[in-house]
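Bug #77: duplicate submission created two jobs. Keeping one. Sequence:
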Amino acid sequence: MGVGNGGHIIAGLAGANPDYEVRLLTGRTDIWDSRKITIQRPGKMGGGDIVGNVDVVGSDPQDVLPGSDVILWCGPVCATPSAFKKIAPTVQAMRRDEGRSAYVGTLFAQGCTHLLAKSTLGADTPYFALQNIPWLCTTIEPGKVARIVGNKHHVRVATTSNASYTWTKKFLEPCINAQNGFKGAELHNMPDFSSIVLNPANQIIHPARMWGRFEDWDMKTPFQPGTLGSLYGDFDDKSAEALVGLDSELQSIRHGLNEACPELDLTSVVPLAERIINQYDDQIADKSSMRSIMATNQAYSMAQFPIVEVDGGVIPNHKHRVVQDDIPHGLVPLKDVASQLSFDVPWIDKIILWHQELMGKQYLIDGKLTGADMAECTSPTILGGTSLANVGFVEPPITPTSDHIV
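Kept job's structure:
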């Protein structure tokens, strides 16, 4: 469901396994006419291309989802609320008509998607979320060819109390590790969702880099094509300073939340540099500093700034997921938790304020999350999680505090 870069990869890997049937729920049915997806992989992984079969393609949930064991959302974080709302009637009908509940999961989650899943899909729906996408990847030819740029050694997954981690691991690992010699990520268990909300990953990496590169830009004047540098390969000192600041504040939130709610498991919320080295290890040439870790990670090497063409050149694309995911579903939820802990987070505040001007949004006003666009955020208090423990669990039962699900 939702076939972006990661959706292409998992469709191809799962489709190469004869034990799996792949069904794609997508608005772009026209690009899947061949019903096959070729996955290219880095040479050092060994082996050639992987070719997977796609069995069903459709745009209507009722035509695609019934009979499924797992419904996996592979689209951008910012589209998760609308995607869940779209499938909710079919998920509920499947539970009624089939006498069982399909597992619903997200290939990559940020914010309180576990609270969103409960409020949208129903408390009876087993839900799981991966803390990180298993590979860095890109689409080469939509609907036909995608490439794995780098793979992680392990990825953690959280499940609701009515979903089995053991079953989830058994089902998913063959879908992210193809049968013909491709060794991808192992799935490790997380007892709750707090480590997803506080994940030291995209939600601090992308905002730090965008701010570091464009903070002095007037948000109007176009750049000449080819002059922006790469997203990570040209990672500079200013971006690194911001990233270190955000990472430090995230760790402070982690320690405060751990003290306030010792029942939550935050052991995987390690400092960012440690997390990247653990997951990519020998793919990083220079591990001596935050800047060098970002700039010399081979898995990051192909990433570019999201841009849009305008008269006179190009400008940063504020509608891209690098922005739309990581502020309302990343830094805003972190700020929410910090506020509940009565923590000051000046770097998070600074980066939110700059991005919301870029986006034409209002989240943070005078240091408080009272902006007009807060309803679109997967933030704990917006989704009814007014107890800090709700950062990790969906119990006690919660009720959304707004009709934000659009």
